[in-house]
Amino acid sequence: MAANNYNNIDLDPLWHDTDWAIGQSLIMGWDGTEVTPQIRSLIEDHHLGSIILTAKNLKSAQQTARLVQELQTIAKNAGHPYPLLIALDQENGGVNSLFDEDHVCQFPSAMGVAATGQPDLAYEVTKATATEISACGVNLMLGPVLDVLNNARYQPLGVRATGDDPQEVSQYCLAALKGIRDAGIASCGKHFPSYGNLDFLGSNLNVPIITQTLEELSISALVPFRNAIASGKLDAMFVGGCGISNQSMNVGHACLSDQVVDDLLRDELGFKGVAISECLEMEALSHELGVQNGAVMAMEAGCDLVLLCRSYEIQLEGLKGLKLGVDNGIITQDRLLTSVRRVLQLKSTCTSWPQALQPPGISLLSQLHPSHLALSRRAYDESIAVIRDNEKLLPLTSSMHPSEELLLLTPLVKPLPASSLTKSLLESTSNGKSSVLTNHDSWVHRDRDRGSIMSGEGVFREFGKGLARARNGKLLHTSYTANGVRQVHENLINRASCIIIVTADANRNLYQAGFTKHVNMMCSMLRSRGQKKQVIVIAVSSPYDFAMDKTIGTYLCTFDFTETALHALVRALVGEITPTGSLPGTLRKSKKVLKARQHWLVEEFDRERDGEGLETLLNAVHRASAPDLQFLQSSSADTFELHNPNVKETHYSVRNSSTGAVYGFVATYYTSGVGIIGALFVDPAKRNVSIGRSLLRRALKNLKQRKGLKKIQVGMCFPGVFLGAPVDAGASPTKEWLGNSGFDIQFPRRLTNMVISDLPNWSAPEGLPQSIQRANISFDLIHGLDNADGVLSHVRTNANPEVLELYRAALSDSKACGIVRAKEPSGNLLGTIIICRQHSTLETYIPALMSHSGDIAGILAPIIPPGPLSTLALQGLALMGVRQNKSHKASKTVFSWAVDDMYEPLLAMGFEILQVFEEITNSPDTVSCVR
Description:
It comes from Hapsidospora chrysogenum (strain ATCC 11550 / CBS 779.69 / DSM 880 / IAM 14645 / JCM 23072 / IMI 49137). Keywords: Glycoprotein, Glycosidase, Hydrolase. By secondary structure, this protein is α/β, with parallel strands linked by helices. The protein folds into four domains: 25-371, TIM Barrel; 385-413 and 454-578, Rossmann fold (3-Layer(aba) Sandwich); 603-748, 3-Layer(aba) Sandwich (Aminopeptidase), CATH 3.40.630.30; 751-918, Gcn5-related N-acetyltransferase (GNAT) (Aminopeptidase), CATH 3.40.630. 38% of the residues lie in helices and 18% in strands.
């Protein structure tokens, strides 16, 4: 630390000059890698005392040191008594403003470091990073990130935060603070009061909102901030621009509120350092208040440095605003000098003119580089986390022969600032603009700077080459987008023995989750046919992508996708290192076990009270589901309520009694001795905390109380939301969960939904009509209950009672539904099937039939006893149904409830698989939901 003692600051007459005092209360930046006339004028004419540098200013370590030296020389020559504060975001991982692969080392993100389980490593890494930027003349590091990810799966902050456990975040951040201080520069915690659980409202003119109460914030989000302040090592605090909306506080922008800055940060938490505002160029603020008002409000709220990132016109507007604030008596001289005093005190701890004018630069960096490179490699190697490897696919050198082809599927993503690709893009952009957003820009400037540079191949190409070299085998590589699985993907999947799918924040880029699950299912089907199709999923940013999805049998996390991280990933994949990283915070196994013991109150579903909450829950489940379950979008509260006199139904919910939110729902039915669980949903954000177990326990208790109960069944065709446990990507996590919950899952019945997507252009397979004719099978179509005695008797004999109710419902809708019968020459029934036109009453209960464009017709519930003609009878019934649907001008037809191997003859007819379920049936005596 510099030893300067700036006593008598308030006595220096210079600071009683309003222009000098205002200049010392602002922090500004600009675009470009050289000093511009504008930034020079701000320092010389407006006495600007603090500068923020971003990736747009920096080309290399040497250029950075020269640039900072020039800025400080300008300040010195302009009569500044004290050096400029030079601030920089250098968080590591994906957020590094200074990139120079020859002199500045790349280290893992905050969450990546936490994945190593070593707080000491956080100290070493942060000290190394702070030492490097200090060598270039930077004296204020904008970090560490003190936010707690209260809702980790859906927050853009992601791996920039340590995790979701306040105590663990505190532990790592205190180590980081010590590292910054020991490197001799100042620290700035962010983003107060929290960016870890924001509600985004969608509009550029709306800021994200904190909805937690102060009490809730106090026991979670504020814990690391409080601990950092109490340590005495935190020099500055970055106050966010988010809103706060709860019963005790309604704030539009935290950094403009004295309730947040003066009351909460200073009075309650005891912070005495420099408070820095969020950038006031943010659209929401400038549209709502204007920058002049915003600057005054920030100062009045208690901020000491008002941030204006880059626009010279807006910066002049902010300066003018503060001067008007003083002239109008809103900002007093005492208030202004209080901020000046804090800023100068900060400068006294982290800089001096000798340091500022002679940064050590490349000479020091060259000395440090070998040891820092070794530290970087160790940190990355120890951060790589293998969450699951159920099939023992790792290392690839053991599970694959070099002659086998490996396929790499990567998403199109924006390159990270900390990459050579980004640097080349910046250098090749003539006007100095780029699409790479700094962390301040991420939502502050997200509309103005949104660019079109998308380079998935560019980011991951070197990774693919390195992996091919390391395993000495052939590697195929292509990208995927929101367009889903295309023919090129299918062709490459058919060639490869092992498929690596890379995801980057799939919880916020849902197409990645859908694509991954689709490919996983394809590979599972190919494996069932004897082909070798290993699947490895790698999350290269947030580990939450598939952390809880056990259908992904081999799952790794890297916590960022810089070149350095991907080099470590190659080493892990080929067995050069044994990954030892783990998931952050509460996702660690010990915490999951703790959560699994929770019990939730289960209440009987009340349509008036819970209907809206159920609709919201269905939407949440739909958004988080694989593509083959997208029909959930068509489900509603009406879907589950049959109002059928022959079916007793009772449904249950787990809800938040304070907000009305429904966290989970289960539908139960009882008819003719069969108790059925027809659906069970849990909010994706509330999974793995025993809500599903609580609902299942209550559902079983209800069903076991029914007199005459002979069996308990999971899955139902009417309503046909879930025909059974969904089989996702060749596995059924729901079935596994049911097994762990007391069900015997050894002998499920496969039920398949199928589809012809282009019905107008479909034609019957050659020879099929002739084969049916030669077998002397005849067909007819009946409508209405009056003609249905024989059909209902046939269904009653050969199917479960709920199927009988589906037939009755179809026969009751004689205008839109009918029954096709297949008969032998003797007149005996070979089989029956339901056909329904578009917009039949059945679509309410069978979501796969629902279509807003009214183009889907249905073929449902074939009842065909085993026999020599059963396959031809099935194909004949399907053919009659398809012809009827074509005659009604449907563009698509769904075939629901193909039992066991029934789907195979339908595949031969041109149907495609839509969803696969497994119906599970147990005796009531054998089912016991474990507690």
